[in-house]
Amino acid sequence: MKTSDTIDALATDLATAQGEMKNATLNRVNPHFKSKYADLAGIRDATAPILAKHGLTITQFTTVEGESLVLCTRLLHKSGQWMEGEYPLPMALDKPQAMGSALTYARRYAWSAACGISAEDDDDANAAQNSGAKANGKPVEKPAWRGPMKVTELKAAMRELSERMNGGSLGTTGDLEAVQEEYAAVIEQAKHDLPEWYDGFDGTRKRLLSTLMVGPASAADPDSPASYEAAQ
After folding, report:
1. Cβ pair 44, 111 in contact under 8 A
2. Domain carrying residue 51
3. What's the 3-state SS for 202-232?
4. What DSSP assignment string belongs to 149-183?
């Protein structure tokens, strides 16, 4: 974390603001992990008015460092004092939908962390378990897969994705992009853990791109960056 030379005024008003804030309403459900979370617009609605009341605001922007994309979240105070943190993002210029999804995900976590509020279900660190860690004095079993989903769950999610893509409900390239954003976490894990399944998905995706009508999605994703900008 980086800060201005002094943050006394910022810290005082932030403490007051946090005392008035409530946790963001968990208004979305991750269909793959069965967990609830607050979307970006919901997090902003729960915090921005109270921050502004006490002379505080948050800005988020991206920078490029080497071959990596970095999200910078800066908490500003009317005095000019500030503090900021950085969040690394995948750089995949050939996959703008995946990058957009990752950016929205990062913005949610960074914004809620800066405000000190909760915006998702607490999984008791199950997703962060790794080899060598201990729980209640006992070694924690190393996950068999790189991603958070077990292989059976991952295959089931990929089948569900395949049905969505082959079910005839996608009329435009925008519809396809929306589905890809919805299943971004599944697709990313399959790319590493089930490459043959990912190859099948990628082949279907390329076929659809060549046959679907070019156009926006029939309904905007409420947690997409575009929807967030429109809500401001």
Report:
1. yes
2. 2-121
3. HHHHHHHHHHCECCCCCCCCCCCHHHHHHHC
4. S-HHHHHHHHHHHHHHHHSS---BHHHHHHHHHHT
- 197 with 155: CB under 8 angstroms? yes
Which contiguous run of DSSP H or E holds residue 14?
Answer: helix 8-20
Residues 21 and 82 in one domain: yes
Distances (CA, A) of 191 to 109, 154, 188, 201, 208: 24, 11, 5, 10, 19
Per-residue burial over 63-88, b if 16 or more Cβ lie within 10 Å, else e, is eeeeeebbbebbbbbeeebbbbebbe
Number of domains in the chain: 2
pLDDT given at position 143: 45
Per-residue model confidence as pLDDT tens digits over 3-32: 999 999 999 999 999 999 999 888 887 766
Whether residue 79 lies inside any domain: the answer is yes
Helix axes 195-211, 151-166, angle to 10 degrees: 10
What DSSP state is assigned to residue 126?
G
Q: Tokens 């309904």: give the residue.
A: 219
DSSP E strand boundaries for the chain: 2-3, 28-30, 35-37, 56-65, 68-77, 82-89, 134-135, 138-139
223: left (phi over 0), alpha (psi -120 to 50) or beta: alpha
pLDDT > 80? residue 46? yes
| Interatomic CA distance for residues 221 and 227, integer angstroms | 7
pTM for the whole structure = 0.55
Q: SS3 of 22, please? A: coil
Mean pLDDT of 176-201: 86
Tokens read off for 133: 């860690």
